[in-house]
């Protein structure tokens, strides 16, 4: 079993971060997503299945194996609201961003006397 490393894109706007990971041939059962101490870990395993019968393979180019991608989350990431969706071999994670707190700014007048 080989180790393979799926490609990841990370983007975001002022409301959320988005992580897109290529996961062709993987199902929800093949993937695990965890968050611990502001570190996001995505694990996956794709098992090699040998077909029984009279087939003789002369070449196999599909990747099999396991992977783990570990990403540090930004300070403003809200881990409670993470959503994950797997569609057509692409895993998308949406991580909400916390809104910066409005600071109460008080202007102080300056006198010359």
Automatic annotation (TrEMBL):
SUPFAM superfamilies: HSP20-like chaperones (SSF49764). This is Hsp20/alpha crystallin family protein. Transmembrane segments: none annotated. Residues 1-113 form the SHSP domain. CDD domains: ACD_sHsps-like (cd06464). The lineage of its organism: Bacteria, Pseudomonadati, Pseudomonadota, Gammaproteobacteria, Cellvibrionales. It comes from SAR92 clade bacterium H455. Belongs to the small heat shock protein (HSP20) family. PANTHER family: HEAT-SHOCK PROTEIN 20 FAMILY MEMBER.
């Amino acid at each position: 079993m080989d180790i393979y490393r799926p490609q990841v894109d990370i983007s975001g706007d002022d409301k959320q971060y988005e992580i897109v990971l290529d996961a062709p041939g993987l199902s929800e059962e093949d993937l695990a997503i965890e968050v611990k101490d502001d570190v996001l870990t995505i694990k996956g395993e794709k098992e090699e299945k040998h077909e029984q019968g009279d087939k003789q393979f002369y070449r196999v180019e599909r990747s099999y194996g396991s992977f783990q991608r570990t990403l540090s989350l930004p300070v403003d990431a809200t881990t409670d609201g993470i959503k994950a969706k797997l569609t057509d071999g692409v895993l998308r994670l949406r991580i909400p961003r916390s809104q910066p707190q409005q600071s109460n700014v008080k202007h102080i007048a300056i006198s010359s006397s």
